[in-house]
Amino acid sequence: MPVWLREHSWRQTLTAVHLSLPLRGARATPASIFCSEQYLKVSIPPFLFEAVLYAPIDDTNSTAKIGNGNIFFTLYKKEPAMWDSLTLKNVDKEKLQYLRENAILKAQEKAKEEMEAKKITKQEHKKYALEATMKLEEAERKRIEDLKEKERQKVTEELELWKNQHTDGDKYKSIQKKRELHQEIEPLKERKNEKLNKIQIPNEGTSKTRLKSTKGCSCSIFSQNLKEEQLPAPRAAATIKVNFTPRVFPTALRESRVAEEEEWLHKQAEARRIINSDLSELEDLKEEEKNPDWLKDKGNKMFAMGDYLGAVNAYNLAVRLNNKLPLLYLNRAACHLKLRNLHKAIEDSSKALELLTPPVPDNENARVKAHVRRGTAFCQLELYTEGLQDYEAALKIDPRNKNIEKDAEKIRHLIQGTMQSS
After folding, report:
1. Which SUPFAM superfamilies does the protein's record reference (predicted)?
2. CATH number 3.30.9.10 given to 323-416
């Protein structure tokens, strides 16, 4: 049976009622108080206080403070007036039961309305976050397109400049060749004119002898001298085609990097095979978006904004495109930890550790994160021994990390406490 609290003190003003209720050593919490427009109840087992107020109050703005062994109520009146008493007099059980049930129903309806309002607000916030993300992605995509367009224009201008320079060079070469040919022909013409002059004005003695010698010849005396020297035709311009050995790898061949080149070619072929495969997720993506690194960056942005499911989807698609990147599994493990998918977090952390081999200084930070995330998942599954092993492995890699050392010490205490209780 509850013990009814009869002792209380109250005072009033025109707009408010101040009520003081002793706790008698009991411990009260906000959940112990129920207040509506005309009904006030304080339930602190084994004590109980119940009152049907004289007039309605504003239960939204009214307050209750717990301290110094008392509960202090400040109840604001809906209509300014002075009350004759704190509670209604001569309230029978039926009316009290009606007021109690009515107050509970109104409280439930109010809580439901507040829950619906919170749900609507949450949906609006989520919609706003999605719109903001889409705007950021659209701006980033536009920025990339602008950069590509600028580069395209720059390359076009450089190509046009090169063509103009090439055309000017060809013109200059043709003019130079004409000048050289003209310089070669001029001396030949001068020599020819000199020979003709000598033939046209001979000596008297020489002319007689020449006439005698040419009596029995039907050809002209000028036939040999008048033969024009045949000049060779200028060389025809032509384009020499040079054929190079086809090569897929973008750099020059070096014997010391043949193994790396073959590995690169294998990865490129595998990536093209995956991209060209029938993946429904890739139908709406652009070519640059079918890149595991681009998807990884997108997942990182979603993780930073708290959209863990979206980040997991981005990492899943990136893993399907390239399942040899340990950072994809490591980042997806962090998302699964946030979503309480502990077994998946353990699987992704283990896969990341498999890919982070051999252990070298460059992947120390990634290996530490993988051990810590897998150890955290083990501890949340109450597998403290396995979790401690991962934390100790992380400490071996990074012994100066104080946070990991503190967490490992806490796990040791938990294991000791579990063993003592068993």
Report:
1. HSP20-like chaperones (SSF49764), TPR-like (SSF48452)
2. no
